[in-house]
Specification:
Radius of gyration: 19 Å
Number of helices: 9
Bound molecules: zinc ion
Helix content: 25-40%
CATH topology of the largest domain: Rossmann fold
Strand content: 15-25%
Structural class: alpha/beta
Largest sheet: 6 strands, parallel
Number of domains: 2
Shape: elongated
């Protein structure tokens, strides 16, 4: 098995080296080794919290309900640390082997690992936005409020309710991030999908765009994905094992 992973990691790097322009697309699988639960997985968050917790109408109906779960479940994202997958992806960018990271994750771990060009399709838990005037707040301010008083954080300026800067169900995806992601997908020679089942829009669409424009799709995921049928290569390994080998090989470059 170890030899198999090593061989695959080597082949993966060869593909990247022969490409001029590649990007990594990441999903929940990349952050589960950091202790961040997947939403829909076997031990997913939706087993512990109501499925409608990220419903935008419900949020405005009862923000206190949302913030109760937020405080219990999501503040711990802040203390999570990047794992070897985030770290190796950051090294790939540093070495010029990839140009961008497009992520469905909202935990900010790619940036913490050192990735520079990160596009967050679903926003980020690292900041909050006033639902009235649009003012952006850092997470420290909100955490302080939530720790000191058990209420809904409000805007200091206008009193509007603050909302995590993530995309709730019923909300549009951030247009700028989406436009950028499509541009990257169109231009790339190689799309590398990591830890995503490639069934949720728009993540499932980006590799398709790359393939339709003549690029290749490489999938690194334990288990089936929605786009296995159009993949140039599929590496069905545990992500931490695979990227550990990639990291070892990178050190020799
Ligand atoms: Zn405001």
């Amino acid at each position: 098995m170890k030899e198999e992973v090593k061989k695959a990691a080597k082949e993966f790097l060869e593909t990247l080296k022969s490409a001029e322009n590649s990007y990594v697309l990441t999903g929940a699988g990349v952050s589960t080794p950091s202790g961040i639960p997947d939403f829909r997985g076997k031990n997913g968050l939706y087993k512990a919290i109501p499925v409608d917790i990220f419903d935008i109408d419900k949020f405005f109906e009862d923000p206190e309900r949302y913030y109760k779960f937020h405080k219990e479940r999501f503040l711990s994202f802040k203390s999570a640390k990047p794992n070897i997958v985030h770290e190796t992806i950051a090294r790939l960018e540093e070495k010029g082997l990839i140009n961008a990271v497009i992520t469905q994750n909202i935990d900010g771990l790619h940036q913490r690992a050192g990735s520079k060009n990160v596009i967050e399709l679903h926003g980020s838990m690292d900041n909050y936005v006033c639902t009235k005037c649009g003012r952006v707040y850092g997470s420290e301010y909100v955490e302080k409020v939530l720790m000191e008083k058990e209420i809904v954080p409000k805007c200091e300026k206008c009193g509007g309710i603050l909302k995590p800067n993530i995309v709730f169900f019923g909300e549009a995806l951030p247009e700028m991030a989406l436009t950028k992601a499509y541009a990257i997908a169109e231009e790339a020679d190689v799309s590398i999908a990591v830890g995503t089942s490639l069934v949720v829009y728009p993540a499932a669409l980006l590799p398709k765009v790359t393939v339709e424009h003549g690029g290749k799709l490489v999938i690194i995921n334990m288990g089936e994905t929605g786009l296995d049928n159009i993949a140039y290569k599929k590496y069905n390994f545990e992500l931490t094992k695979f990227f550990n080998e990639v990291k070892n090989l990178l050190e020799a470059i």
